[in-house]
Amino acid sequence: MKTCLKNLRFALLGVLVLVPVLSASSEPQAASGTFVVIADAILSVESCGANTVLTTTHTSQWTGTFQGRSVINHETITIFPDGSATDRGFGTFVTDDGNGTAEHSYFALGNIGPDGQYGTADDTLTGVFSVDNGTGSLAGIHSRGTFTGVFSGTYEGLVSFKDKENDHSDPKGHFDRQDGPCSDGKK
C-alpha cells in the first residue's frame, strides 16, 4: 500500500524561485527551467467519501532561471474515483547560495494512468504557481507561471522584483491554502 501511495504522490514541484539579480524594481522577465523531486514523505492518508486525500511534504531541486531548493511544508493531493486528481501546496524556496528565501504556492490538475499507479508514462500533472514575500536576494519577488511534470518536469513564467514600499502583493500567496474537500471536517 505504501509503495502504491508513494507512486500516487504528485511530485509537485514546489515551484520556484530565484532569479537573476534584477534591480529593486523591474519589469517582468521570462523565467524557465526544470525541476526534480529529491525527497518526499506521505504524512497521512484519509478517505473523504469516495476520494482519497494524501497529505505530504517534499523537496525539489530547481535549475534554469530559478536555482535552489523548494521545500513544500504542506501538500494536499486529492484523488477522485475517475482517476483525476488535484494537488495544492505551499512552502519555501531557498536559493542555492542561501542568500534568499520566498513563499510560494501552487495548484495542479492531473490524471492517473489506466493501471491505477501514479508516476507512469500515462500520468499527467499541469499546474500554476505563485511566488511572493521574498527576503534577502529575493526581497520584493513577484512571480507567476505554469509547470508540467510528475517527479520531474519543466516550468515557465514571469518574474519581477518590486521595492517593498510599492509591493502590494497578497502577503498570504496567490492560491487558497485550504486542505481540500475534507477541510470542513466532514468525512
How does this model look, in words?
By secondary structure, the chain is mainly β. 4% of the residues lie in helices and 55% in strands. It has one helix spanning 2-8; strands spanning 29-48, 51-64, 68-79, 84-95, 100-111, 124-136, 141-149, 152-161. Residues 1-24, 167-179 and 183-187 have low confidence and may be disordered. The chain is built from 1 helix and 8 strands; from the N terminus they run H-E-E-E-E-E-E-E-E. The protein has an 8-stranded antiparallel beta barrel.
The number of distinct structural domains comes to 1
Provide a count of the helices: 1
Helix content estimate: under 10%
Spatial strand sequence of the major β-sheet: 1-2-3-4-5-6-7-8
Low-pLDDT ranges: 1-24, 167-179, 183-187
Q: CATH top level?
A: Mainly Beta
How many strands appear in the DSSP assignment?
A: 8
Shape: elongated
Per CATH, the superfamily is SO1590-like
Strand content: over 45%
Our Rg estimate from Cα atoms comes to 16 Å
Order of helices and strands: HEEEEEEEE
**Distance separating the two termini:** 21 Å
Mean pLDDT: 76
Class of secondary structure makeup: mainly beta
Query: Largest beta sheet, briefly?
Result: 8 strands, antiparallel, barrel
